[in-house]
Design goal:
Blueprint lengths: L6 E15 L8 E12 L4 E12 L4 E13 L4 H30 L16 H6 L1 E3 L6
Parallel strand pairs: 2-5
Antiparallel strand pairs: 1-4, 2-3, 3-4
Length: 140
């Protein structure tokens, strides 16, 4: 029998999605911004990662903002080891789902799909670390 992973991704939810198209022009360069934050319940072994992604073109003819939350659990991890999972692995696990959502959103809107590149999100580590709140998630 396989032993369950010490850090598990359970699900994600798109909490908010804004699609603002002022004019349909060809987009060669997109600006992509991230605002990560999270809620940690160490005692219950739960973590919720909020990943806010903003996309716009240089002319700001297109703006997309997506707020997603990923639901994770963990066990048998001390705080020091846990933080690598929270700060590095959690964004890397959640981002492909948001990336696929944005591609579908643009395709279903009649535009040429926006396919975000695969990104190394380790540079979000410090910002995410500064925006993690310890709370009780046991009722969720």
């Amino acid at each position: 029998m396989e032993k369950p992973s010490i850090f598990q991704f359970h699900n994600f939810l798109i909490n908010r999605s804004v699609f603002d198209l002022k004019q349909n022009t060809q987009r060669k360069e997109l600006s992509i911004g991230f605002k990560p934050s999270g809620r940690l319940d160490f005692e219950a072994g739960k973590f919720e990662l909020d990943l806010n992604i903003q996309i716009s073109d240089k002319l700001e003819a297109l703006k997309i903002e997506v707020e997603a939350v990923g639901f994770f659990s963990f066990k048998d991890l001390d705080r020091e080891k846990l933080f690598d999972f929270l700060y590095i692995n959690a964004p890397a696990i959640l981002f492909p789902y948001v990336r696929a959502y944005i591609s579908s959103l643009t395709t279903l809107s009649g535009l040429q799909p926006i396919v975000l590149p695969t990104l190394n999100l380790t540079n979000l580590r410090d910002e995410l670390a500064a925006h993690i709140e310890e709370v009780s998630l046991s009722s969720n």
